[in-house]
């Protein structure tokens, strides 16, 4: 368990309040209809407090994903987890969060407006960094035959594609089936990169 100093605890509480306020608002109306003023009013904080921690509403949206990614990758903390037949339960749960948000007519450009490029770029980068750290820890002391950052970006890219396709209902499988498919793709890439194909055949 992470231990925070007094000032850090206050900062975490404030950021948590803003995350919660934003999450509640996203359940009530579209992202593009939410203003920073709405968030600080719901979170009972001031404008200067908001900007102390978040440069924009888009940055707040990206930061919402950090703990979700941490929960997902906590289930991929070992070599055996990456090479397992079984996907992390958190990935199917992550997909289920979007079950009611998507549809064949969904448009990410419409959902995110002018923040689209920023949000997609930074979410992908955040996930890539998290995957790279997780792989580096799980396979500590082992050198992949593919540069670790490229391997991590490939795995993260596959995960992001599945989430976006799930939002658009371009793929019809259940969250559990999708999670299993993504695990197989990730396992194949990781196993090959670390010369462990014999363990995944």
Question: If you had to describe this structure to a student in words, what would you say it looks like?
Answer:
- The chain has helices at 6-28, 36-43, 47-53, 57-74, 79-82, 89-96, 108-112, 116-138, 148-168, 175-193.
- It is mainly alpha-helical.
- The chain has two domains: 1-54, Arc Repressor Mutant, subunit A (Orthogonal Bundle); 57-199, Tetracycline Repressor, domain 2, CATH 1.10.357.
- α8 packs across α9 (148-168) and α9 packs antiparallel against α10 (175-193).
- The N and C termini lie far apart (37 Å).
Features:
globular, 201 residues, 10 helices, Arc Repressor Mutant, subunit A, Tetracycline Repressor, domain 2, mainly alpha, 2 domains
Brief synopsis:
Helix 4 (57-74) runs parallel beside helix 8 and helix 9 (148-168) packs antiparallel against helix 10 (175-193). 68% of the residues lie in helices and 0% in strands. By secondary structure, it is mainly alpha-helical.
Global mean pLDDT: 88
Regions with pLDDT < 50 over 5+ consecutive residues? none
Which geometry do the CA atoms define?
globular
How many DSSP H or I helices? 10
Task: Let me know the number of strands.
Answer: 0
Estimated helix fraction: 55-70%
Percent of sequence in beta strands:
under 5%
What is the CA-atom radius of gyration, in angstroms?
18 Å
CATH fold name of the largest domain: Tetracycline Repressor, domain 2
Structural class: mainly alpha
- Ends: how far apart? 37 Å
Tally of distinct domains: 2
Which CATH class of the largest domain?
A: Mainly Alpha
Q: From the 3D coordinates, which CATH architecture of the largest domain would you assign?
A: Orthogonal Bundle
Largest beta sheet, briefly? none
